[in-house]
Amino acid sequence: MAAATHLPLPSLLHSSRRLALNPRNLSSIGSFSICLRFPPSRPPLRHPIFSSGCARAAYVTAPASDPDSIDKGSNLELLEQPTVSPPPAAISWGIIWPLLARHKVRIAISMISLVGCTSCTLAMPLFSGKFFEILVGRRPEPLWTLLSKIAVLYVLEPIFTVIFVINLTTMWEKVMASLRGQIFRRILIQKVEFFDRFKVGELTGLLTSDLGSLKDVVSENVSRDRGLRALSEVIGTICILFSLSIQLAPLLGLLMLSVSILAAVYKRSTIPVFKSHGMTQARISDFASETFSAIRTVRSFVGEKKQISLFEKLVIAYENSGRRLGTLKSANESVTRIVIYISLLALYCLGGSKVKAGELSIGIMASFIGYTFTLTFAVQGGINTLGDLRGTFAAVERINSVISASEIDESLAFGLDKELEHSDIGLIHKDIYSEKIPVLNSHYMSALRSSSNGCSLAWSGDICLEDIYFSYPLRSDVAVLNGLNLTLKCGKVTALVGSSGAGKSTIVQLLARFYEPTRGRITVAGEDLRIFDKRDWARAVALVNQEPVLFSVSVGENIAYGLPDDNVSKEDIIEAAKAANAHEFIISLPQGYDTPVGERGGLLSGGQRQRIAIARAILKNAPILILDEATSALDAVSERLVQEALNHLMKGRTTLVIAHRLSTVQNADQIAVCADGRVAELGTHSELLTRGGQYASLVGTQRLAFE
Ligand SMILES: Nc1ncnc2c1ncn2[C@@H]1O[C@H](COP(=O)(O)OP(=O)(O)OP(=O)(O)O)[C@@H](O)[C@H]1O
């Protein structure tokens, strides 16, 4: 093992494919499926990333002197990698510390100014005591000398405070901006099933309210009676009190102890109320965003009353939990006050009697009263900060439970990392998590990079789906594809038909690599897709759906999104729009190409949206084109315009068409009938009609709808 070396994955793939995966060689080593049926105790004779379930866990060893030994079949050893540890929590001290460490100077200035302003604050009661002693003639110092010292304190304290607040908040805002950017990036690189699992509202809530709570824990706790200042005042006051009078200090200690115990009891008793308050708030936000985004459905079903009544229930639940929280807060407030008053009364009695007996100076007694108030406010402020911290911990826990439970799509993340490194994006330039993800993964991912480029291969080679098995991760017990085999011939049109739920759109999702097959492989010109990182592969596939999604920017910017990394010229945008039959309607819009399309393109008609999506795909100029019911939602006029645009787009590209209309399907070079997760029939329109099988019956029963 020690002498072993890591072979570059492409060469391994090449070799192992020759040994086991190339269909032409299957006869010599047994069928491809034999590879998949190796007993679990023995790894299959191919790179385990190509079998399901161990996608990240493998590398290859062979003698360093003979990298070609794989070809010769000697010394080939495939070793299972130890299980890769799960991705680190999205927010932890280990993540925040490096971000804080970038602002050492600001932190140092904040701490120095904190000491400065706290010292000023804590010196004030001492000066008050001296002031009274001068007034009653117990101190020889001239009054104006003392007053000028007090004036210096009054000037210094706000100066130190400003320096403290500005530095601390600036530093924290910068840390939070990095963290927010990183978490957005971390969400964006999750596997697609992550987005199946969590609602959009939940994910946006992490970035807004939950991260907002983490931000507030510093930015809302910089005032005199909160956070670090409160803490430093508590510590400072106790030290001063003990140095002033060893007899009276324990009394104030008792006061603090009582208040702290009350705070702890309050904290425990309010945790469930606090949690349920937060959850009801999240439900309100989810419900409102769902209602507003489905406003047309609500309108068409006259659902306003129902939505209002459901919303009312949520609002009442929120109100109730808010009231319970308020009651607990007020109870705590009054009990805390009672404790403070009792302690003050005790101080007056004990301190007063000591002053009368001449055991304590009136100045110290006056200082003590001042410190009692300082201590009271500081302790209360500390408790409030604890309350904020409690909410913040709950928010951090929510963020971590959502993001850590999921898996990063490493083949996407790796490519993105590389691209960001060379981009001008500064804030989210380096993934703070990548350092935490085991080095092995990046070694593994760099091995994934093939010398060949997926996009150029797709211009010249067929796409083969070989023995594909697939279940959606969230419904792993339901087999959607069961050993599907299909070849999309290069530059030709393949139509996919079949009953609803037969798995047509699932094939599209696999071709686009939103999901990976559970078993089997997809190849382009004989190369397994998994040797390309996903961002490379994404450039090879243009997808036009029934419901194209536009961003709420201008028409021109939506078309330019076809090449999001490039500076697309206005001429290119116009050319693409013309090819998509969209130019005429675009120039008739109020601001032409600068007209905003509204949220999800809501300010345009279905046909207009579709033609902009086609223009975007034309600009992308990808070798593989997937049309998933691209014209099925359109009226006859729009359909003709869109179909013309699509015909233009399809030229010279490997095209997969899913359609219910016979007219769209019958001219395809081949038609595949999907049933029971397999291709049941394959041929041209006339061949399949002659065969009289499922396609003929689909056409006969008009389930493949005619115009
Ligand atoms: N994200 C998902 N998670 C879990 N199951 C899914 C998901 N998407 C689709 N399915 C299930 O997979 C099966 C195949 O769905 P698919 O959308 O591929 O069918 P289809 O042939 O395209 O149907 P249609 O013609 O109605 O669009 C269905 O049973 C569906 O419920």
Verbal overview:
With 707 residues, the chain is an alpha/beta fold. 59% of the residues lie in helices and 10% in strands. The chain has helices spanning 9-21, 26-29, 32-36, 69-72, 93-101, 104-135, 143-188, 192-197, 200-219, 227-244, 249-293, 295-300, 304-356, 362-404, 410-421, 439-448, 454-460, 504-511, 534-538, 555-560, 570-579, 583-587, 606-620, 636-650, 662-665, 685-691, 694-700, and strands at residues 4-6, 58-63, 77-80, 463-470, 481-488, 493-498, 519-524, 527-528, 541-545, 624-628, 654-658, 670-675, 678-683. Helix 11 (249-293) packs parallel to helix 14 (362-404). It binds adenosine-5'-triphosphate (ATP). Adenosine-5'-triphosphate binds next to helix 18.
Structural class: alpha/beta
Strand order of the largest sheet: 9-10-11-6-12-13
Give the number of helices: 27
Question: Care to count the β-strands?
Answer: 13
Strand percentage: 5-15%
| Average residue pLDDT | 76
Query: Radius of gyration over alpha carbons?
Result: 35 Å
- N-to-C span: 66 Å
GO molecular function: ABC-type oligopeptide transporter activity; ATP binding; ATP hydrolysis activity
Subcellular location: Mitochondrion inner membrane
Organism: Dioscorea zingiberensis
Domain ABC transmembrane type-1: 108-391
